[in-house]
UniProtKB/TrEMBL annotation:
It comes from the Bacteria. Keywords: Cell membrane, Membrane, Transmembrane, Transmembrane helix, Transport. Belongs to the binding-protein-dependent transport system permease family. This is Sugar ABC transporter permease. It comes from Roseburia inulinivorans. One of its GO terms (biological process) is transmembrane transport. It is a multi-pass membrane protein.
Amino acid sequence: MRMKRHKIRKKRNPGWYFLLPEFLGVSVFGLIPFADVVRRSFFQTVDGSFVGISNYVQVIKNDAFDLAAKNTLRFVVTCIPCLLLLSLILAMLLQQVLILAEKKKKHRDVTMEQFYRGSAAALKSMYLLPMAIPAASVVVLWKILFDSHGFVNSAIHALSGMNGIGKILSVLLVREVDWMNTDAAFGILVFSYVWKYLGYDIVLWMAGLSAIPQGIYEAAEMDGAGKWKTCFYITLPNLRPVAFTVVILSVLNSFKAFREVYMVAGSYPQENIYLLQHVFSNWFQTLSVDKMAAASVMLAFVIAVFVLLLERSWEREE
């Protein structure tokens, strides 16, 4: 009996060896640097003296940090619901197209099967294309569209000679407008973020939709359930595990919007799009490592609390 237990333990032990490289990688590139950031947040950068929570107090009282935190929160609250809802709708439509293709295949309707599969492939290419575009190319696109001499201003001036809406636009737009330096900049940022990461969320939703057994839908159809009831009582409940992952990854991806804004507007953009990453970048340039460390710890704490609360609410509803 002891020999058998010893053999079982021997078989189980190799699993830890496979996990060891991952654990070392996370420790070296994640846990240890973060621990150093936490340590630096309690010390002054210049002389290395211990200052307690003084850095945290300075960060909270900083007007730039306050503005950036409000803008970032506003950006996340605006973007995430739009992104989740739009990506879910498009993923469900795409899934329906693939289901129709499978039905046509069963009925040996080759022409319609190829049509539906071609449509699905075209849709996939459309929503995955923005993910493949580099940030620098997105910046060029922004400048072409929203610069004072860009496409939007040219289109409005072209319409100004027409009746109706053209006259209204000509009154509102007397001169060329740099849209990235107006209140419209926030809306442009939201639109570009949703456009950029829509395909990422669609892929995640598609993975969840593909995991739902088709037999459930067939049984519901035989029982007389309509499309809406099938959606609310079968599709959405089965997507709950995927929804948790999509929400978390979408929130984390929302912090990547800084690159495009920085390339277009620099370190001090229009107030509506001045995000937390701008504060970190400016503090890094002035070597305010202590403030930057304190702000990073606070941000990590807020994200961790958000994830834990979301996970707990998910578990309660299940």
